[in-house]
Amino acid sequence: MRLRRPVSLLQMMIVVLLDGVWTLSAPDAVSMDSTDMRHTLRWRPLQDSCNTSILYSVQFQGEFEVTVLDGSWVDAPECHLIQHTHCDLTLDLGSDSDYNVHVRGQCGSQPSAWAELRRPFNRRDTVLTVPEMKVSAAVQGLHVVFEKLPLTALVMVTVWRTGDELKAQAYSVTAEEAELEVAALQEGERYCVRAQSFMGTQLQSSSTDTQCVSITGPDAAWRSPTTVTVTVIIMAGLLFAVFWFIVHWRPNICQTCFHKEPLPDSLVSSKSLKYVNHRNHDFTFITP
Fold first, then answer.
1. How far is CA 67 from the centre of its chain?
2. Above 50 in pLDDT, residue 273?
3. How far apart are CA 165 and CA 191, in angstroms?
4. What residues form DSSP beta bridges with 103?
5. Rounded Cα gap, residues 255 and 244, in angstroms
6. 211-214 and 38-44: which strand pairing?
């Protein structure tokens, strides 16, 4: 009996040592990067030696999983046994509830422990960036276009005439529309535009830089210096082409238009005989 106990303790020590040698360390520095409603989980790669590539898997647990699925964890479909150290969870974290998220590595059939986010993530914590805005002048109006808007964001656009910002007009643009037409503005005046993204009642981005443009009228294109210059050049080219055509082709055209038909041979012979007789002072009448 005394021999069995030391053997048992030795076995336990061997198991503990082997477990410490072969168990992978958990991923480190797990964090969530969320910008414009794009949620990406990131972590540092495992430093453990592995004969094959270390693969990573991500799971999440939201309000539905806690209350309905008895606290179970769900595999992120696009982040199961992947090689890279980041995972796009935008489609998985689809509600405004808090989510627990964890990740683990795997070398062959040997998995590591799970590494969890320090605190639950809520998509309302996303960071809204300043919307990308382009403003151009249309006929008696403005054309405002936005790019790369978050799907659930709303953009508030403010438009005012230069020097009269207190009477600014506000417009709303959804991500599906992504553009705005402002018509019936005063021709020749300069108008300014500024925009800001909103999501819900608490989340908002910084404002864009103010962009100002002058409003043009229907015939403004013909009054622009560039258009006038191009028109003068085209007209001068046409006049030069007409003058060159007249100088080089007019003689040929005249000859073609006034070309005389040749006389018949009988008339040519008669005329020649009359001319010869006239030279010899012979006025005898010669019939043709």
1. 41
2. no
3. 10
4. 58, 115
5. 18
6. unpaired
